[in-house]
Amino acid sequence: MTEQYLQHSEVPLSQRYPLALVDLDGVAYKGHEPINHASDGLNAARQHGMRLVFVTNNASREPQDVAQQLTSLDIPAHSDDVMTAAQACARLLTQHVEPGAKVLVIGGAGLRTAVHEAGYTIVESADDNPIAVAQGFAPTLGWKDLAEAAYAVTAGALHVASNLDLSLPTARGFAPGNGSLVGAVKAATGVEPLSAGKPSPAMYHMAIERAGASTALVIGDRLDTDLAGARAGGLHGLHVLTGVSTIRDAINASPIERPHYLACDLRALTTTHPAVTQRNGWWVCGASAVRVVDSALEVWESDDSEGSPDGLDPARAACVAAWNYADTHPTTTQFDLPEALV
């Protein structure tokens, strides 16, 4: 089956891939709260020999703080196991601005540390004539911070964002992410910023290089960042349904955002993943089959089977059926989904 569609694995993913690049918010935890089965799944994967590196678009926190939070949630981690968008942002700066230059940092401690360690002089105001603005998320940012960024960018400073996530999951729901705050500066200046975070695959490649690996499995909850980054970087991606993007989103995903595997949660790292095959006009996964008729998905399930252990075989078949139809009918936009799928 084409790499554009879901893949299958006859061995657990933790045995197929030596390294996993794990997103944080919506995958390993939600805000400061644990996610069901995250610690169980990740610790079991480690026991199978899989190495974990946590790759996050959050640029506000220091890697050691992230590692401490993971450890407190029964996911043991060290700072070297964490790759942040702040580190990627600092590296992106080095491609455009000479070390020693003045940089206005709009963000949290993690971004300030990364920019400082990259050799730049951090300033606090647009009046200091910075060469660049590095912007990342921090819950304490306000209008004055965004205004300083806008003043500097209008005066000619390079605008570099740690990421462009429009929202971020918290224990209370979804809140504005860095992309929303960057959007305010963009709207005020008319200048399109550079972005270091996902969906750029830069962080993934940095993490693979740091781990001394040749490839990795990307694990995320957002199709537009985590999984799009995997596709952009030529890596396989596992989409878990514990965060932002839903089954409906996956079925309607564009080619650049499609995952290679679909799972309810991180227990999927230590299980096999079934194949989706075509048979008599239907796409079949286990005891479930799906076809597209006039942009609507039809689902058939055998009465003689208990179904898949995770209940996702209908969704897997629907993803491949929808993607195949969309690829051969370019004007298709969104599919009508029966209740059995959502």
TrEMBL record:
<protein>
    <submittedName>
        <fullName>HAD-superfamily hydrolase, subfamily IIA</fullName>
    </submittedName>
</protein>
<dbReference type="Pfam" id="PF13344">
    <property type="entry name" value="Hydrolase_6"/>
</dbReference>
<dbReference type="GO" id="GO:0016791">
    <property type="term" value="F:phosphatase activity"/>
</dbReference>
<dbReference type="InterPro" id="IPR036412">
    <property type="entry name" value="HAD-like_sf"/>
</dbReference>
<dbReference type="InterPro" id="IPR023214">
    <property type="entry name" value="HAD_sf"/>
</dbReference>
<keyword id="KW-0378">Hydrolase</keyword>
<dbReference type="InterPro" id="IPR006357">
    <property type="entry name" value="HAD-SF_hydro_IIA"/>
</dbReference>
<dbReference type="Pfam" id="PF13242">
    <property type="entry name" value="Hydrolase_like"/>
</dbReference>
<dbReference type="GO" id="GO:0005737">
    <property type="term" value="C:cytoplasm"/>
</dbReference>
